[in-house]
Design a protein that fits this description.
This protein has 29 helices and 25 strands. It is an alpha/beta fold. Helix 14 packs antiparallel against helix 15 and helix 28 runs antiparallel to helix 29.
Length: about 775
């Protein structure tokens, strides 16, 4: 049965691939589809879905079943059992076949290992080239590329062929082949495995072809090279190589362009495909539970089949859960007894220890009202449901209460009752109201007011003496708030998701719009953008904005002063024009500075000024005609009339490099050229002290002709030597491979080769034909 289900799944996966995906150009998706299809076909038939069926068995049926079983036993005893069963023969054939394929797999791996270990190799990170003495077609296995030594030394292997094999190696196509070989050992008799293995190898060729053509290589020339190399057939079974039998399909796919709409539609096919496979090919198992007669006291308001199942699971050592919370077996039996025909969702599984886990879920979503008692004490502290809290710990204590329900539910059922031994001030109610903004509650009730969250009303105004509560903002006020937020966002500079720099704000406007936002109802707040400065409160005594979370500290401590002076001294020592301040450090310094007394501020280092925000980063296509013309004029002006080049600063180079980087492809073609690379570091000046005069040369010394100096190393040889040291290569500001560097040097022998970081593990080699640039230090 498993084999039939496996075959059905695999056939459906292949059918969808052959009809809808094979001729498309999204080869990466096709690769993972084919591998995932094979693995899913193995796993889906192993999934078991259990259903429980309650049956009532009568005594006469039991009697008939016993008689039938006795008759069947008697009949079976008369059947002669053959000496050799057909199943034994089939299993023997299967094991022989699997053994043959396993031995073949090990032999192929051993051949590859011998070729790798016994032949000359050249490592150009991250790939290794194995040079063989026999004439073979280039092929790859993981990070190893196998080549014919003579053609490689002669340089007669086309660059397109090498790039093709490098793509196989870099994309780890050998991993897919190894996986299919292991599956083939188990299912060696299954014809679909061979067909899908062939399709996976063909898709690997599509991927490699696509990578070659993306380098700008002519399709026609590449096809001629493929025809030339496809006549060879000597390569390893586990390797990726050029295949003649697939040439026609590959040529067709090279010219195919698949629309994004068709790719998306093909991807969406996976949803109904997997649904069909899960419904049709998983294993269904029915577990029959026989209901037995229980005592009348047990049958009263109980469900016998449900209860018997719980008892049976308890006897097997099962664990019980109700709404994902663990309960005892007695509690589970109580639920079964009190079920009274109500629906209770139940899921039975096995854990990692092969023990049953019974999960019960109540379908009722009713929640009853809950209350929290808050008592305001005389010492500026609070009792929250019997737990003592200060203003600083108020939120933390509240956040420990009723966490078994979500904030949305708390918004509907939590009632907060506030009492005090003396008159409760409006300021105190406002503190509680603001502190619980993110907690979730239905209403706050005091001796003289009621704040209902859903209605959007707020506590009594602090300034007023009337008992009217503050009203929700009008439509005009909300419109003004939206316009202010929009204007604020337009002037803000966003550095990251967590860092935004806002312009200098008018204090009166900030207070005005903060008040409007606080008076909004929940529905109104959902319709506008959140107030960008949460936690700020206006203190009319000093006409300043303070954070609610600031402690009532009178001055900074000695440890805080030491910390502030250390940070401030470090940042103030930086030049103001090139100062870089971490936002975390600045916030800490500002926090401590606000705590200082006037005397402490006088004796402390001044608060460092924030540097101006960086210019807005340009995006592709944002180089307008004015900047484009300015760039071309600058490039043309670099060359002096006498043929020499002007000396420019590194800052000037970076500016024009950024303009070039943000040009469109068309603008780069029309530009006057690319900017020169950044200048090398300024050489160190070695002070030459007075050197004593050399001693007089002795007479009658025979002066022999000095031998000529050794010829300089060729650039190509130097590139090869540096490639062995894992060096990085750069040309015209872009990183290239060592192979590309060799090609560039061979084409242009007049290139300048510079090496940086030569004393490190990864030296950097720069190829350039640009003028030498000297960095100018600006004051």
């Amino acid at each position: 049965m498993y084999l039939l289900k496996f075959s059905g799944c695999l056939f459906l996966f292949y059918l969808v691939y052959a009809l809808f995906l094979e001729k498309q150009n999204n080869h990466h998706f096709k690769r993972f589809y084919l591998i995932g299809g094979v693995l899913s076909s193995i796993m889906i038939p192993l999934i078991t879905i259990k259903t429980y069926v309650v049956s009532s068995t009568e005594s006469n049926n039991n009697f008939e079943q016993v008689v039938a079983n006795n008759n069947l036993t008697a009949n079976l005893s008369e059947i002669n059992t053959p000496l050799i069963e057909l199943s034994d023969i089939l299993w023997t054939v299967y094991i022989i076949g699997a053994t043959v394929f396993l031995v073949r797999f090990v032999i192929n791996l051993n051949k590859l290992y011998k070729d790798i270990s016994s032949n000359e190799s050249i490592r150009i990170a991250p790939l290794t080239y194995i040079l063989l003495d026999k004439n073979i077609i280039p092929h790859s296995f993981f990070k190893y590329i196998f080549l014919y030594k003579r053609t490689f030394k002669d340089g007669s292997i086309p660059e397109e062929v090498l790039l093709h094999e490098e793509t196989h190696a870099q994309q780890l196509h050998s991993l897919d082949i190894i996986l299919l070989e292991l599956v083939q050992i188990v299912f060696w008799f299954h014809p679909l495995i061979y067909i899908i293995k062939q399709r996976i190898k063909l898709n690997h060729e599509f991927l490699a072809d696509n990578a070659v053509l993306n380098q700008g290589i002519s399709t026609k020339n590449y096809q001629h090279i493929l025809l030339q190399y496809s006549s060879y057939s000597n390569h390893h079974q586990l390797a990726s190589a050029i295949n003649y039998s697939s040439i026609k399909k590959r040529f067709t796919v090279m010219k195919t362009q698949t629309s994004k709409t068709r790719i998306w539609l093909s991807t969406l096919l996976l949803i109904p495909l997997f649904s069909l496979l899960l419904v049709g090919f998983t294993t269904k198992k029915e577990i029959t539970i026989d209901s037995t007669e229980l005592s009348s006291s047990q049958q009263y308001n109980s469900n016998p089949s449900f209860l018997e199942f719980i008892v049976d699971m308890e006897n097997q050592g099962a664990s019980f859960y109700l709404d994902d919370e663990k309960i005892t077996a007695e509690a589970a039996k109580t639920i079964a007894k009190n079920n009274r025909g109500k629906r209770t969702e139940m899921l039975t599984q096995k854990d990692s220890n092969d023990k049953y886990v019974v999960k019960l879920y109540s379908t009722s979503d009713k929640h009853y009202a809950r209350s929290i008692e808050v008592e305001v004490l005389n010492d500026n502290a609070y009792l929250i449901d019997g737990k003592r809290a200060t203003k600083k710990t108020f939120r933390n204590v509240f956040n420990q209460l009723h966490q078994d329900i979500s904030k949305e539910i708390r918004d509907k059922i939590i009632n907060i009752h506030v009492t005090a031994s003396k008159t409760l001030s409006n300021e105190e109610v406002w503190f509680i109201y603001n502190a619980l903004e993110g907690y979730g509650y239905h209403r706050i009730v005091t001796s003289n007011q009621e704040i209902i969250r859903s209605k959007g009303n707020t506590p009594f105004a602090i300034e007023g003496k009337n008992v009217e509560q503050q009203k929700s903002p009008s439509k005009k006020e909300i419109a003004d708030y939206k316009a202010w937020i929009k204007q604020l966002d337009g002037k803000a500079i966003t550095f990251s998701k967590a860092a935004t720099q806002y312009p200098i704000l008018d204090e009166k406007e900030l207070i005005k719009y903060q008040n409007i936002y606080k008076r909004m109802t929940t529905q109104q707040k959902n319709a506008v953008k959140e107030f960008p400065f949460p936690g700020l409160e206006f203190n009319k005594n000093n006409e300043d904005l303070r954070s609610q979370s600031l402690p009532t500290q009178q001055e900074a401590t000695k440890e805080q002063m030491d910390e502030y002076n250390r940070l401030a001294k470090s940042y103030n020592s930086q030049p103001e024009g090139r100062r870089i301040i971490k936002m975390k450090d600045y916030k800490r310094m500002k926090y401590i500075y606000d705590l200082m007394s006037p005397k402490q501020r006088k004796n402390a280092h001044p608060l460092p000024k924030l540097p101006p925000p960086p210019p807005r980063a340009m995006h592709k296509g944002e180089v307008n005609d004015g900047i484009f013309n300015k760039y071309n004029k600058w490039i043309k002006g670099l060359k002096n009339p006498d043929g020499t080049y002007k000396i420019i600063s590194s800052g000037e180079q970076r500016y024009y490099q950024s303009i070039y980087d943000n040009m469109t492809a068309d603008q780069k073609k029309r530009s006057a050229g690319i900017p020169p690379p950044p200048p090398p570091p300024k050489p160190k000046v070695i002070e030459v002290k007075d050197v004593p005069a050399p001693p007089p040369s002795p007479k009658n010394i025979e002066v022999k002709e000095l031998p000529p100096p050794p010829p300089p190393q060729k650039p190509a040889d130097y590139i090869k030597d540096m490639a062995k040291t894992n060096a990085k290569f750069y040309y015209e500001g872009k990183q290239i491979t060592s192979k590309e560097a060799l090609i560039i040097v061979n084409k242009n022998q007049s290139l300048i080769v510079k090496t940086k970081k030569s004393d490190t593990r990864t030296p950097e080699v720069y190829l350039t034909d640009a003028p030498v640039i000297k960095e100018i230090k600006r004051n």
